[in-house]
């Protein structure tokens, strides 16, 4: 099997949240389950200038559509990332797609719009519809809003906020390394501090993306859905709905997992994705 870029090698595109790339900086031990057969390209949906292929990031495409008043945000989401920051710019004909949270919504839409370019689809802690499973309990929602409303003015504050947010929405069964999470928050701020306006556009983009369940029923792509049973942000019923919509999709749920990817579950999560990808 050739290992030259664009020639006969399995490829995995990972779409995550704003600090997604920084959360997986690519140490060899984390990449080991894939490194022999898979080229990895991490596309995150927050911030600018870090995409492997340059051009617009998926979130920027969303925001651009909102600013221009594009009536069909699904169209903007489904078409532009492939051409401007995705597979075409990387020179790839097709890839295995993995998306978490908003990244999962993007991956679902790309699979719907470009099924021939998606070898397998993995949707993690995501939803097939903007209003399905996306309303946290009122106490959690108020806490998220209070935390999000505090302006972040420096990397140290960003680190503290990252730790506080993980405690709020993370996995109750799995303790996390506060130093590691704080470092991710700090580096994310140093890379791109973000803005309240960007956060508002992201929330608006999710709402505008609509309901993909009917379109997902047309997919004939091997699909895996991973979801935490204790996710307070995108509840388990959203993952179940995704799996129910895609013919033949397999649902794997994790007790005690919240809206994060706890290190303790990495071996299982990676093995699930590896097994799906290597069937193709």
UniProtKB/TrEMBL annotation:
Keyword Glycoprotein: no
Span list, region Disordered: 20-55, 179-201
Matching SUPFAM superfamilies: alpha/beta-Hydrolases (SSF53474)
BP-aspect Gene Ontology terms: glycerolipid catabolic process
The keyword Oxidoreductase appears for this protein: no
UniProt superkingdom: Bacteria
Protein name, as recorded: Alpha/beta fold family hydrolase
Organism expressing this protein natively: Actinomadura verrucosospora
